[in-house]
Amino acid sequence: MAEEPKKIGRVVVDRNLCIGAATCVVAAAEVFELDAENKAVMKLKGGTKNSGPAEKKDLESDAIGDDMLLTAAQSCPTRAIFLYDEEGKQVYP
Ligand code: SF4
């Protein structure tokens, strides 16, 4: 795996902020999709899907990079995707 400058440990979608714009789905379809309420959920190992908090290691896709998660979070018009590093410190927004 490539070098990851920012070690992302956890991902959370704030369902109150999410407006279903789905740009996160476009940016990282391996991770995000919209549920029946048009809110973003993450695809987790074992087939569960929820808005988190999700540990990065529990995401279904092992290929997902921190840069892609950051791009997806930055693409969200309402900044509904929160990223935390492995120490629990907020990385974005
Ligand atoms: S980009 Fe943001 S608002 Fe749009 S679906 Fe994803 S989390 Fe929700």
UniProtKB/TrEMBL annotation:
Ferredoxins are iron-sulfur proteins that transfer electrons in a wide variety of metabolic reactions. Pfam families: Fer4_15. SUPFAM superfamilies: 4Fe-4S ferredoxins. The keyword Iron-sulfur applies. Keywords: Electron transport, Iron, Iron-sulfur, Metal-binding, Transport. GO terms for molecular function: electron transfer activity; iron ion binding; iron-sulfur cluster binding. Coiled coil: none annotated. It comes from Candidatus Azambacteria bacterium RIFCSPLOWO2_01_FULL_46_25. Signal peptide: none annotated. The keyword Ribonucleoprotein does not apply. This is Ferredoxin. The lineage of its organism: Bacteria, Candidatus Azamiibacteriota.
